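Quick one:
INPUT:
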C-alpha cells in the first residue's frame, strides 16, 4: 500500500516504519500519520504530517481532483495527498497548513499553503477523528 510512495520520497520523509495507519474513511481512503514529524506545540496543539491514499470510489479523491482542475493542473494522475496539519486537541479542531497533491511516483502535481488558519471541527463522523485520537491521546 503506502510502501510504493514512501520509497520515492515524501516531504515528511522517513521510511515505512515511520508511518502509522490511523484509519480509513467510509470510502476506504487510507490515512497514515508520520510519527517522527509529530511535534507538540503550545496551547495543547499538535503539528503532524499525514498522507492519504484515496480509493478509486472516494468522494475525497473527486474533491481533490476538482481542486486540481480549478488550478489548471492534471488531475488524472493524482494518487496521494500529503498534508501538514495542526490539530487543536482541546478544541477538537484541525487546520491544514500545507497540502501536496502527488502522483504515483511521489512527484508533486500541486502545492497549497494556508497562511491564515481555517479551522474545521473534528467529530466522530469525519476522516480526521482517528488522527485526533492518535496524536492527542484521546
Amino acid at each position: 500500500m503506502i510502501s510504493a510512495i514512501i520509497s520515492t520520497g515524501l516531504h515528511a520523509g522517513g521510511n515505512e516504519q515511520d508511518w502509522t495507519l490511523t484509519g480509513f474513511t467510509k470510502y476506504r481512503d487510507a490515512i497514515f500519520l508520520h510519527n517522527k514529524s509529530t511535534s507538540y506545540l503550545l496551547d495543547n496543539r499538535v503539528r503532524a504530517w499525514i498522507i492519504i491514499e484515496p480509493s478509486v470510489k472516494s468522494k475525497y479523491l473527486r474533491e481533490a481532483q476538482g481542486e486540481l482542475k480549478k488550478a489548471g493542473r492534471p488531475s488524472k494522475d493524482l494518487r496521494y495527498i500529503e498534508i501538514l496539519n495542526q490539530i487543536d486537541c482541546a478544541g477538537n479542531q484541525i487546520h491544514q497548513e500545507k497540502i501536496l497533491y502527488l502522483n504515483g511516483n511521489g512527484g508533486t502535481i500541486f502545492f497549497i499553503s494556508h497562511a491564515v488558519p481555517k479551522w474545521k471541527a473534528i467529530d466522530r463522523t469525519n476522516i480526521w477523528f482517528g488522527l485526533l485520537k492518535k496524536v492527542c491521546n484521546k
